[in-house]
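Deliverable D4.2, example record:
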Amino acid sequence: MVQFDNKGLIEIRKRDDKIILEYSASKLAWKAYINEFGRVMNVANKFKEMDMKQVGKITSYFDKLGVAVLKLEKDETLKIGDKIKIIGNTTDIEQIVESMQINKKDVKKVKPGDDVGIKVSVRVRKNDKVYRID
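Output generated by the structure prediction step:
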């Protein structure tokens, strides 16, 4: 993997005498291969949007606890075990929701419009967008 333009990753590998390139960033992805003459061929799924739906945004982050406060959209829910992606100017992470709390009480599912604390694996920032990956 190679970091590319601070927002995405390019994976380069060889398969069947072809060099395969795959790029992924936020909600975009593409795949291509380079032929023996150095030309990029067969760009598949050019900038295909990943199957993600915005469920809310970060309103606060507590560094010492590693907890973010997430404000859910008015028509979205979230539950333990959901896979989420958090995207912002300097944030781009994916993780499984393992812990959620409302008013210091553990919850397994949250309703639309709720403010919920979720344990996050890295620092996130106010106004980062949170997507559920299906």
